[in-house]
Amino acid sequence: TLWGESAGGHLALLTGMAENAYFGINGDTTVQKIIAYYPLTDLDTVEAQSRLLGLNNQSCAGEDSLISIMMGPHYHDQKERKAASPVFWISEKMPQVVLVHGLSDSLLPYLQSVQFFERAAETGNAGKVSLHLEAGKEHADSWFFSSEQVAAFFR
């Protein structure tokens, strides 16, 4: 099981879903389950989703955004942006994915998790993804890390 939150959730999704050949890896690196708390899932829609929800943050928009810094010179390369977006790695070979996102997240719009879930459904993989949207929960809210919540998602 891979588990991550925010950027770590993004990386857990990529690590567990991307084709080994993309990274030049030979051998079996099969992941059975991914738990991603409030992850970035599509670099190309996050800015518009932020605007749609009225989020005024710099993490998702423009040349000085965290996404731009993360992508470096690849920020303007459409192929690389797609490869860095877990939503495009959804396939019948993907592991079970648990997405948990707060509806009050002001850093990464919860629509990123909704989009991932909907894309899984569109591609016939809805049974592999569970989506948990939590009312009143902000990005990195301590509620996500309570022993009760963590245990619930690892069952």
Number of helices: 6
Structural class: alpha/beta
* Number of distinct beta strands: 4
Basic shape: globular
Proportion of strand residues: 5-15%
| Unreliable stretches covering 5 or more consecutive residues | none
Which sequence of SSEs, written as H and E, runs from N to C? EHEHHHEHEH
Mean pLDDT: 90
Helix content: 25-40%
The biggest sheet, with number of strands, parallel, antiparallel or mixed sense and barrel status, is: 4 strands, parallel
Rg measurement, Å = 15 Å
What order do the strands of the largest sheet run in, or round the barrel if closed? Answer: 1-2-3-4
What is the end-to-end distance?
11 Å
Overview of this protein structure:
With 155 residues, this protein is α/β, with parallel strands linked by helices. 32% of the residues lie in helices and 14% in strands. The protein has six helices and four strands, in the order βαβαααβαβα. A four-stranded parallel β-sheet has the order 1-2-3-4, covered by helices on one side. Helix 1 links the parallel strand 1 and strand 2. The model has no long low-confidence stretch (mean pLDDT 90).
Could you give a short description of this structure?
The chain is an alpha/beta fold.
List keywords for this structure.
155 residues; 4 strands; 4-stranded parallel β-sheet; alpha/beta; 6 helices
